[in-house]
Amino acid sequence: MTHTLHRRGDVNSLSRDFVFLMMPSKDINHVGSAPKLRQFFELALECGAIKIGDCRSGNEYYQGGLGKVIENVVDRAVIHAVFDDRDKAISMLRRVKEADLGLSVVMSGLVDVVDQCCQEAGVQRHTVEHSLGIWGRTERLPSEAVLELNTMCGHGMVTVGLINAVVDKIKAGKMTVEEGAEELFKPCMCGIFNPARAAELLAQMAAEG
Amino acid sequence: MIIDQDKCIGCGRCVPYCPIGAISLVPKDHAEIDLDLCAECSNCLRHGVCPTDAIYQQELTWPRTVRSILSDVLTIAEESQISGRGTEEMKTNEVTGRFRRGYAGIAIELGRPVLGSRMYDVEKVAMAVAELGHIEFEVSNPVTTLMCDPKTGKFRADVLNEYVLSAIIEFSVSLERVPEVLRRLDEVAREIETVFSLDICTRVGLANELPTVEIVKAKGYWISLNGKTNLGLGRPLVKGD
Question: What is the pLDDT of residue A3?
Answer without folding.
Answer: 82
